[in-house]
Amino acid sequence: MNYEKIISKIFNSFPMYHKVGSSAYKEGLENIEVLASIANNPHTKFKTIHVAGTNGKGSVSNLLASFFQEAGYKTGLFTSPHLIDYRERIRINGDKIPEKKIVDFFEQYGDQIDKIEPSFFEITTIIAFDYFASEKVDIAIIETGLGGRLDATNIINPILSIITNISFDHAQLLGNTLPKIAFEKAGIIKPNTPVLIGESDPKTLPVFQAVATQKNAPFFVADKIKLSIIDDSDPYQTHVSVKYNTKLIYPDLILPIPGDYQLKNLATYFHAIEILKSYFKIKNDYAKAGIENVVKNTHFMGRWQVLSHNPLTICDVAHNIGAFQYLVSQIDKLNIEKIHIIIGFVEDKDIEAILQILPNSPQYYICKAPIQRALNPKILLKKFNEYHLNAQILNESTFKTFQKVQKMASPKDFILITGSFFIVGDFLDQYQKNS
Question: CA nearest 265: which of 391, 421, 143?
């Protein structure tokens, strides 16, 4: 067996939700429990932190991984989806899982796995757990894939559960109201295990409180940390001040992943560290370094990621109404006259809600990610026209569209690539190959 054949098998033999949609979603934990048993329950052999939420869970997971790396701990990080390379999903101290480890896993367990017919996410989850156990990580930050209660990652017993925020996404699977979605996310709350809620919302907070009370889980809300932007004139980084209650702890903290939306993620991050201090003997303050070095430590991509300066070119994986509300606010702050937005969506998103908040001034270029779930650009163009947004199709390929836009744009313009992980991932793959 070789790596290329194994990866082909993973992508083609195991149904992948992010590629084909709800037909790949396997409800329940039966498969992952059997997989874990086959691999000798690797998830029980290391400490974990579990992170769920509609938006922000990737940022919080990467920030916490960066913090533990700065503190000298061997740190696992499991996130999804990947942007370019499958192995991005599984990292230790920022390094992707070696190809050989994936091959070894299938050589050892492949025959037994085939009989179970797991989903793409289930097989990826157990590969990650097996790798973290074999490498004896001190801590692993585990991001849920979809929801929480029935997510394949939910077999772990973490030392801390975190729910970043709740917004409308995957309504066909998680529910069509915020309390229903919150109930699914609350499924990661474990008995007698602290849970931290990143964003207090009157529609969802009672759901979390009820589940925590039922499970005797210590309950925290990220409301003691106060962050203020002191300088956001630089599109490449944001300067913020940080207060704990009324005490100023960081007068000037540099955030290398800019965006107002990151302030709530930072508040969640700082609160999580306060809770975690009772589990880890951390002598020095590594919280600041964890933030300022997050891109270097974890190779975090796709969140207001600056690719070039003239013209300013940024990609962002915003893909639902909650994320786009923050993204639109960030665009407004740039105060740039000519804006080009290269955009595409997958079929099951609430496009109408997003189109209602998109600004009228940019020129939109509609494209399509090379996946089965991608929304037809002609259908999307019609929707843009209905909302009187200036849109056109130059090419269905994201990167070829970018090449044409780049030629048209002046050095003072702004180019944004957004709409889904797959639009950004496909673009970054081609962008890096052609750079």
Answer: 143
pLDDT for 85-131, tens place per residue?
A: 999 999 999 999 999 999 999 999 999 998 888 989 999 999 999 99
**Alpha-helical regions (H) of 335-397:** 351-357, 377-386
Residue 433 has pLDDT above 80, yes or no: yes
Which residue shows structure tokens 């702050």?
Answer: 333
Q: Which residues pair with 23 in a beta bridge?
A: none
Helix (H, G, I), strand (E, B) or coil at 41: coil
The SS3 assignment for 290 reads helix
pLDDT band of residue 333 (cuts 50, 70, 90) is confident
Q: Residue 249 contacts by C-beta under 8 Å, 6 or more apart in sequence? A: 242, 243
* CA nearest to 412, candidates 328, 309, 330, 307: 309
Q: For residues 124 and 80, is the Cβ–Cβ distance under 8 A?
A: yes
Element housing 174 (H / E): helix 171-174
Residues 6+ apart with CB under 8 A from 260: 229, 232, 326, 329, 330, 333
pLDDT in tens, 336-354: 989 999 999 988 778 899 9
C-alpha 178/C-alpha 1 separation (Å) is 46
**Residue 346 has what DSSP assignment?**
B
Asked if 125 and 89 touch (Cβ cutoff 8 Å), the reply is no
In 3D space, the residue among 169, 218, 227 whose CA is nearest the CA of residue 190 turns out to be 218
What pLDDT is attached to residue 172? Answer: 46
Strand 414-418 relative to strand 339-343: parallel, antiparallel, unpaired?
parallel
Q: Which of 118, 121, 180, 179 is nearest to 146 (CA)?
A: 121
DSSP-assigned beta bridge partners for residue 95: 92
